[in-house]
Amino acid sequence: MKILVINGPNLNLLGSREPDIYGKQDYAALLEKLDDFAKTHSITIDAYQSNSEGALIDKIQAAAGVYDGIVINPGAYTHYSYAILDALKAVNIPAVEVHLSHIAAREDFRHNSVTAAGCIGQISGLGFHSYFLAIVGLMSRSNEN
Length: 145
Ligand code: DQA
Known about the structure:
Number of domains: 1
Strand content: 15-25%
CATH topology: Rossmann fold
Shape: globular
Low-confidence stretches: none
Bound molecules: 1,3,4-trihydroxy-5-OXO-cyclohexanecarboxylic acid
Number of strands: 5
CATH superfamily: Dehydroquinase, class II
Largest sheet: 5 strands, parallel
């Protein structure tokens, strides 16, 4: 199984960016944990991060026919990018949206996700665990099919 983990704007600053909200571990630590998870579970996990909407869309489009699942944290694009929503809908790959923070418990503008409608589910508020739970969900789903 091949999973693509996509992180959007400002997630490269994990560790130094508002650590009380996003945690003290940096992006490199997330990549390392994803690698460990992939090895332990005998799957392939590729990770990609960009601060630009177009680059994220290009990556989603290029995933078609290559990946069995997408885990995406679109960052602030979550709340307004209809273009990322359309890209997720355009490729026939099950995607799970993840958030480190509990977006429903934060500012009003973070309560709504426009991108989640292009996903099979959403996991929010569990820090790095959000990513691993999303991957486990995609793995279980693919075993059932
Ligand atoms: C985030 C939540 C978004 O509202 C925010 O803009 C982010 C990170 C999260 O992982 O909690 O950049 O997606």
